[in-house]
Design a protein that fits this description.
With 549 residues, the protein is mostly helical. It is built from 20 helices and eight strands. The chain has four domains: 21-62; 67-158, no CATH class; 167-283, no CATH class; 322-545, MetI-like fold (Orthogonal Bundle), CATH 1.10.3720.10. It has helices spanning 17-59, 89-98, 107-114, 121-131, 148-154, 167-178, 213-224, 240-251, 269-275, 291-301, 312-315, 328-359, 364-376, 381-395, 403-428, 431-439, 444-472, 476-480, 501-509, 515-545; strands at 67-73, 139-145, 161-163, 183-186, 189-197, 259-266, 281-283, 305-306. The strands form three sheets. Strands 2-1-8 form a three-stranded antiparallel beta sheet, covered by helices on one side. The longest helix has 43 residues, at 17-59.
Amino acid sequence: MSEITADRRAPYDWTSAQSRRRVRRRYAADRRLQALGLGAIGIALLLLGTLFVSIISSGYKAFVQTHVKLEIFVDPSVVDPENPADGNYRKLVRDSFFAYFPEVTDSADQRALREILSASAHYNLRDYIVSNPGVIGQTINVEVPTSDPFDQLYKNVIPRRIEALSWQEEQAFETYVAERGLVTTRDGQNLIRINVFLDPGKIDAEDPASGNYRSILAEAMRALIPRNAIRNPIDLLSDAAATKLQEFAVANPDRIGSVVENFEAPLSEHYAALARGEEPTILNPRFRSAKEFAWFDSLIERGLVTLPFNWALITNGDSRFPEQAGLAGAIVGSALTLLVTLLISFPVGVAAAVYLEEFAPKNRTTDLIEVNINNLAAVPSVVFGLLGLALFLGTFGMPRSTPLVGGMVLSLMTLPTIIIATRAALKAVPPSIREAALGVGASKHQVIMHHVLPLAMPGILTGTIIGLAQALGETAPLLLVGMNAFITTPPTSIVDPATALPAQIYSWADSPERGFTSRTSAAILVLLAFLIVMNAVAIFLRQRLERKW
C-alpha cells in the first residue's frame, strides 16, 4: 500500500510587507468610496441649499406688504348704515389721503398722488366697514396697501432712477468717440467733432433753411459709428445739432456740396453726462414724476408707512394688482383637486393591488398588466394631461378648469404609484400571518381583509401620501385641462372654476409685472411647505405604525 503524502503549503505570513500593502490598498479603497459618498451628499446639500437661498431671498419680501395709515371719517351720507356694501369708499379713501397734502391742488398732481395707493385700496376699507358697521359715523384709523411700485420702492427692490444708457451704448461711445478724442467742451457745452457732407440733394441752394439737416447728421453719425454698435447713432446728438448745422448752411451757402470737417455738434443730455464722466440716469418709468418721491418720503417721515405681514397673500384670491394678489384660490383649488385624486386613486389603487397580489392567477395576462402598470409610473405627466383633455373634456364634455377634472387627471397619474406601493406593502407582510389565519379557519378573503391589509396599511398610506405629494407639484396636466384660468374667488365645490398652486406659480412667473416676481417665489415656498408637510406625515406614519418582523 503506497503512502500518500499530503501537499502542505507554508502558512501565509499576514505580517509580511506584501500583506500590509494589500491591507493599505483595501483601506484606501474604502476611504475613497466613503469620500465619494460624502462628496455626493455634500454636492446635493449644496445644490439644495442654493435652491432654498435663491427662492427665500427673492420671495421673503412678498410676505410683508407696504401700507399707509389713513384717518377716515365714515360719513353716513357716503356709507348707508342700512346697506354699507354700496358706499362710495373710493371717495372716503381719496379725501382722507388728500388731506395729508393740502398743497396739492392741481388735477395732474392729484392723479399722480393717487398712484401712491393701490387702485383697490377702497376694497380694504369696504370689507372692514361691512364687518364692523358700528363704525359708521365715527373716525377710524385703517391701513390700506400702497401700489406695487411704491411697495417695491419701500422694500428697496427697485430704484428711483435707472441707467439711461445700456452698457453697449456706453461701450460704443467710449470706443468710437471718447478714445478718438472727438469730444470737446465749449462755453460749458459738450460737443462732438464730426465730418458732415452737406448733400445738395437734401439742401436747396436757393433756400438752405428748408434742408433736411437731421438726415444729413444721421448719415454723418452712421459713418462714424457702425450700426451694430448703436442702433441709432443720431441719438448721440441733441435736437439743437440740426439747428446749428442749418444756421451754418444758411450762413455759408457756398459750402453746400462739400464736406464740413470737424463740425462741432452738441451731444444729447445723456451722452454729455457720459462725456463728463458721470453716470446718466433717468426717472424709473414705473413712476409718473419725481414729485411722487417727495410725497412718499413725507409719509415715511410722519410715520404713516408701515410694513406688516401680508395676510392678503394667504387670504386673497388672484388679482391683476400684485399688491392684492393672493393664493387663497390656488390653495383651496389644490386641496379640492387632491381630495378628488385621493377619493378616486386610493380605493381603486388598493383594490387593484390586492387583486393582483393575492387573487389574480399568475399567467401572461397578469404579467402584461403588471408590466404596463410599471410603465405607466414612468410616463411623463403631460401625457396624462393630453389624455384628460381628449377624454374628459373632449369626449365626456366635463366642465373645464374644475378640481373634478384636474383630480381625475391626477388620479390617473397617481394610480400606478399607489398600486406599486400597495403591492410592496402586501409582500412585506410575513407569510406566517396568512398561514396562521388560514390555520384557524379564516377564508382567503378574511385573511386579506382582517389580517394582511391592516398590517400593510402603514406602507400603503406612505405610498399614497408620496403619490399625492407628487401630484400636488404637477403643472402640465392642470394647464392642459384649463386650471390656469384667472380665478379671483376661491372655489366652493369641485365643479367650480379653480386653479392650483403649480398653475398659479406658472401664471405669476409669466406676468410682466415686477411685483409678481417675489410673489412667484413666495408661492413656491408655500408649495414646498405643503410638500414638506406631506412627506413628513408619510415618514411619521411609517415610523409610528410600521411593525418590524
